[in-house]
Amino acid sequence: MLTTENTVNWLTSFGEKVIENKAYLSELDSLIGDGDHGSNMARGVQAMLEKFQSTEFKEPNDVFKTTAMALLSKIGGASGPLYGSAFMEMAKQSETGDISVIISAGLDGIKKRGRAEPGEKTMIDVWVPVCEALQENQLTKQVIDEAVQATKPMKATKGRASYVGDRSIGEIDPGAMSSAYLFEALLEGDILND
Ligand SMILES: Nc1ncnc2c1ncn2[C@@H]1O[C@H](COP(=O)(O)OP(=O)(O)OP(=O)(O)O)[C@@H](O)[C@H]1O
Ligand SMILES: [Mg+2]
Which ligand is nearest to the CA of 77? Predict the structure, then answer.
């Protein structure tokens, strides 16, 4: 069950993972994009963590909205508006308290904004299998890892990575990796357990 406290804990852990792996995310992006995904994401989650320190939240809805605004305004790049849309849509479904409904709304937000379909080597290639697993109550670290690895053979046809064409084949998509940290943090927290 989703509470204000476990939502803050989840997203704090996500933020910490992004900061820890900032160099790795940028390295992945330097192989198929412009090398800024780690610094973009770290700037966004840093702003989110600062907001968490200074805000008394009443309900999960406020936490998601604050996260959306921080990521949207600070990440820049393609991923800022995409993560911003995801968390905005998640806020709207937060009252259901159902994490599977909430993540699925987030995915719809990303799809609406970015118009990517599965298999185009973007972050949604992690969001889609995670949503499916959550619906079956079967999200595991393996599901997340496999989704990330599955982006390797894909050829990017959306975003900046599409500029490198066939050279995008063989590498992990950086946005898929940053999304994996979001779901690893979800798995490690207590939202799915209580
Ligand atoms: N249309 C899209 N739909 C979903 N995800 C996308 C889309 N376009 C890009 N992405 C994701 O965004 C990630 C890249 O984010 P990043 O922060 O590096 O922005 P960027 O591409 O460098 O943006 P810009 O070109 O504006 O600087 C990709 O790895 C991919 O997962
Ligand atoms: Mg980039």
Answer: 1
Q: Which two tokens stand for residue 167?
A: 């050279």
Q: What is the separation of C-alpha 90 from the centre of its chain, rounded to a whole number of angstroms?
A: 12
Instruction: Report pTM.
Output: 0.98
Per residue in 46-66, pLDDT tens?
999 999 999 999 999 999 999
Superfamily of domain 4-188: DhaL domain (1.25.40.340)
Residue carrying the six token digits 């719809």 = 108
pLDDT at 193: 85
Q: Is 142 buried (19+), middle (13-18) or exposed (0-12) by CB count in 10 A? A: exposed
Looking at all shown ligands, the one closest to residue 111's CA atom is 1
Cα separation, 14 vs 27, in Å, equals 19
The atom number, within ligand 1, closest to the CA of 174 reads: 29
CA 1 to chain centre: 20
User: Could you tell me the distance, in angstroms and rounded to a whole number, from the CA of residue 79 to the centre of ligand 1?
Assistant: 5
State in Å: Cα 175 to ligand 1 middle.
7
Residue 159 CA, closest ligand 1 atom number:
8
Does the pLDDT at position 194 exceed 70?
A: no
Q: How far is the CA of 151 from the centre of ligand 1 (A)?
A: 14
Q: Is 18 in the pocket of ligand 1 (CB under 6 A)?
A: no
Length of the chain: 194
The tally of CA atoms less than 13 A away on the side-chain side of residue 100 is 11
